[in-house]
Amino acid sequence: MAKAEIRDVDPLTDAGANRPTRARQKTSKGKQGVASKALIHLVLLVTSLIFLTPLAWMISTSLKPIEETMKQPPVWIPSHIFWGNYWDAITYGSATLGYIPFLVYARNTLIVCILVVAGTVASNSLVAYSFARLRWPGRDIAFAATLATMMVPFPVVMVPIFGLFRDLGWIGTYRPLWVPAWFGGAFSIFLLRQFFRTIPFELSEAAKLDGCSEWRIFKDVILPLSKPALAVVALFSFLATWNDFLGPLIYLLDQKTFTLSLGLQFYQSQHGGTQWNLLMAASTIVIAPIIVLFFFTQRVFIQGIALTGLKG
Amino acid sequence: MSSPRKSESRAGLLFASPWFLGFLVFLAYPLLASIYYSFCDYSVLKAPVWVGLSNYRELWRDDVFWITLKNTGVYALFALPLGVVVSLALALMLNAKVRGLAFYRTAIYIPSLVPLVSLAVLWLWMFNGEYGLVNVGLKHLGLGSPPWLSDPAWSKPALVVMSLWGLGNAVVIYLAGLQDVPQEMLEAAELDGARSWDKTRHVTLPMISPVILFNVIMGIIGTLQIFTVPYVMFPGGVPARSTYFYAMYLFDNAFRFHKMGYACAMGWIMFLIIFVLTMVSLRASEKSVHYGGS
Predict the structure, then answer these.
(1) What pTM did the predictor assign?
(2) Span B61-288 CATH architecture
(3) Measured between beta carbons, which residues in chain B are less than 8 angstroms from residue A158?
(4) Which of A113, A129, A159, A175 to mutate to test the interface with B (most CBs of B within 10 A)?
(5) How high does pLDDT run on average in chain A?
(6) How far apart are CA B7 and CA A302, in angstroms?
């Protein structure tokens, strides 16, 4: 399948480019792209199906009884929909597999996510406002330094940060996972600053003439106009926290405090390689909320990704 | 300095103060401490003891260090260029005005949302030697069934395939760049008799070259730190250490072997490599990257 994917996509740079030329020479404007369009359709359709297959297979496996996961040729539609896998993944209490409390993991993950999102939005909007719309000595140098921090790989600072949290007695708690979010981060600062700068400065001037303080201007003028950018920052920090594995792996000790990502890894390391239907049910539980969130916030997503890539 | 100016400065510093604090505590201090530790013998239980360059000397002689460095380099050498070519090609196609774009775009983007641990678990099942869908499909096509997870020659290709599955994010970034290419420029090229491929090569690609550069640099930083997926799929870098990557060895040194100073030295070497590669791509791009007037 790997091969198929690459083979399907790679030639298209040639084919997609060459075909239309040939077509164009023969036909007049307007009709020229017919052949190349058909080809683009074909390649996109095949690629899309290939991209969706693993997810479809995951869901299919998650709804099968164990015997059917090993049938050859593979069964796509289970003989009967077997919801029990999900129930087992959520509440498994049997002596053989131990207790894998995915509902507890989900709750833990949500707690961390909420604290991180709140901190990210609160701290970064303040800092970005300062960088975008207030003048103070050294501001531009500080901003350049902020951008430079994006290049620092986490493994470089991992050990001292771990030591810091250990000295604070925070290992085994959620604090190492969410407290740093309340002190800003380069990526969100950058994103919000770019957005804040697009808001006309006359608005601030007018508010200032009316006797508004910077805090009031920030809170009553800028923030209400920046909801799309704030949504992007909130969404991205939510996703990053939901997905984070290294952080929980380093800081969490007790299985009852695990997040979904860490819990899924733990589950896989204990019972991987056999109970594929249960494992796929657990995987689906971790993935599904993200996909649902995506469908509800598609516009924010696309905007945000465009924002990050563009004015980079 | 007038007084409103002064109060603006004060407000500015006040608003930015969370970040100053965060910068000092979570970045400046750890960076300095990490340099210092890299010259120390430091485990969790004992205080750090200065040992000079001995960590770096030991790394130089450490076979595992070189193995993980090589593994990471080889993986990046395949995953990065393939990722750029495939995602750019997909973005170019998605930028054509064909029907069903919304579906194609969503289908290609969704896999990139999958959390890394789920990604690893899902592909363990996809690559399963006997019942995995990949080999079922390959067998069907008469292409045999490679032992993706148990043969050192196939484990890295498996990871490259997985990285391609998750490139939707890069595709959307390219797509956003493509939509910013001025229509007039393409039309002008067309009037000059440019063919489709010429337009792509001489107008579209130069116009989005800053986006490509951005994606390449992000790709370098991310790929060299690959950790979660191999950690979940190949504990300890099995088979035959073929998937033991740099960040995994660094993590093991810090938290399994408790050689914190050694881990910091590894961290700095990683930083140096990323820095050099970023500078090289910036330098190499100076001639080929086109920055528009905007």
Answers:
(1) 0.88
(2) Orthogonal Bundle (1.10)
(3) 250-251, 254, 263, 267
(4) A159
(5) 83
(6) 39
